[in-house]
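Crash report, auto-generated. Payload:
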Amino acid sequence: MSSTPAPWSQEEFEAKLRGRSTSYHIHHPFHVMMAAGTLTRAQLQGWVANRFYYQISIPIKDAAILSNCDDREIRREWIQRILDHDGYHIGGIDDPGGIEAWIRLGEAVGLSRDDVTSLRYLAPAARFAVDAYVNFARRQPWQEAVASSLTELFAPHIHQQRIDTWPTQYPWVDAAGLHYFKQRLTQARRDVEHGLRFTLDYFSQTRALQERALEILQFKLDVLWALADAIMLSQCEIEIKGPKAKVAP
Amino acid sequence: MSSTPAPWSQEEFEAKLRGRSTSYHIHHPFHVMMAAGTLTRAQLQGWVANRFYYQISIPIKDAAILSNCDDREIRREWIQRILDHDGYHIGGIDDPGGIEAWIRLGEAVGLSRDDVTSLRYLAPAARFAVDAYVNFARRQPWQEAVASSLTELFAPHIHQQRIDTWPTQYPWVDAAGLHYFKQRLTQARRDVEHGLRFTLDYFSQTRALQERALEILQFKLDVLWALADAIMLSQCEIEIKGPKAKVAP
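Recovered output after restart:
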């Protein structure tokens, strides 16, 4: 008898993936402040300006996945993500795309287009966190990079929260700027359906693969958390209160 | 008449490079605490455990430089750095190398070898900062990667500080553990002489190149600062005091 544990059922595996929502950056102190309406105008601007680097890195990350993927069917689905973010002009449709929508969010919070696109407010550690995600997609097998996109499971909630709370908590933000979040509500749901279906199938071949998928999802959650840390440290005065509860032995 | 500014003299350029010491991580709150002797045993252990990831990444970074470098003379000099960190057994000499010395530093602060080498205490953002340095060396021309090593200009000071202060401020640390810092005092001085000579020559071809070298040095200073931020957040309880003095416009 093999001592290798049997794979979890797909339902059980999916529940374990969804269970990682506890590490989603919606729980990060900076995002808690954002949802509570206690960020200053400059802090919200700082978040939009820093997060822009994530936005412009997404299509580069997705292109890395395409460049590693020898499955045409997957490429035909996955390319939609690049089109969504970069925008496109195909067959009479002219979509300015998610990056342009984010620049307009920048304008809605009072930044100029150049403030956003110049990256002049980008904190180095924010860049390092985002680049970790791009480099993961460049260097790991495309199946792993697909699994790393599954933080989208948790994204509709945070987008909806912003749509619901900003108009009352940050009434000075031009409401047109919320277009990005509204658009992503639909797109993220569609994307994650594809990514989740693939991950549940591919990684359910063995328990070890399922555990690897959880590790990959955790890596991506860590990227988003580290991005929030970097933004927090660049936007907030902090004070060291004392040592953390024992980390090292 | 060209509007391109003339290159700085090599003396002036070197002074500008050295002037960047104001952003060196010796000024980071966590390192200030370390020098003041106020870190707890667990915090010092946390620093050693996290910083180990930097130590094991250095030879990978240097191998990336070799792999991009078509100049045999440079490779013959640069390979010494890999030998220093990985250790070697050549011509009857048996040098365990800097990584092994760092593991012994880990033991000297009360960690087990496995605590250090397993990376179980590594903060994700510490990994992202260090990986940014490795990826810079992988993707940029080797001449730029050489310039990025120039934070070694500032390293002897911080090593000497540890050698001087630890025996009284952290008397529980086994003194044999300080061997790494003592060894690096000599090695870093030799390495930086080579890197600095090359940078002053190569980047003095134009003012634009000199400015690029300063930008590269700043990138590497940002890597070390972000590493210290990651360690601080993983080892310290912090409190958000309020917004930073205006960052965004």
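Post-recovery validation: Residues 10-245 of chain B form a domain with the Heme Oxygenase; Chain A fold (CATH 1.20.910.10).
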